[in-house]
Amino acid sequence: MSTRIREISNGLRKALLQGESMELSLYKSKLEGHIDEWYEELTADRGDFVFIVTEQAFSVAMITIDKDKNIHINEEAREQLSKIWAKNYIKNLKFLLPKMAEHINEYGLSITGITIKKAPKRAKAIGMGKRV
Question: Within 62-131, where are the H helices?
Fold first, then answer.
């Protein structure tokens, strides 16, 4: 792992897992102008949610966009993502962070689409219950 990818990964870890503040000016310069483009991709993919993260000089910015075009920025976006993933937030981010850092190193940002699947209802077993 290169030094730069390690630096990006550390910045992402601090911002996304340790609750460090994010940079509004970085959001404005790198993310704000692409919202419509990412929303179009989200609807074309029939996804439920997308989050985009960038890093520059140890600062991190983030945006989330849902299928209704609700937009959340930085800390609000982190909070939204943690609500969507609930109990799996930390596990999912630890899994994704290495690839996110590589994508940011190569392309300047990381885009992750999410489709929410509802868990099937559990069927009741026939014959279970009171004994006669």
Answer: 75-85, 89-107
Tokens encoding 10: 């550390």
pTM: 0.84
Model pLDDT for residues 62-73, shown as the tens digit of each residue: 999 999 999 999
pLDDT at 39: 96
Q: Which residue has the tokens 């960038």?
A: 54
Neighbours of 77 (CB within 10 A): 23
129 to each of 67, 120, 123, 125, 126, how far by Cα in Å? 42, 22, 14, 9, 9
- Strand 110-114 versus strand 59-66 pairing type: unpaired
What gap in Å lies between CA 64 and CA 55, rounded to an integer?
A: 15
Contact 92, 116 (CB under 8 A): no
pLDDT per residue as tens digits for the range 8-34 = 999 999 999 999 999 999 999 999 999
Q: CA 109 to CA 53: how far, in whole Å?
A: 6
Q: Are 114 and 47 in contact (CB under 8 A)?
A: yes
Show the beta-strand stretches assigned E in the chain.
Answer: 49-56, 59-66, 71-73, 110-114
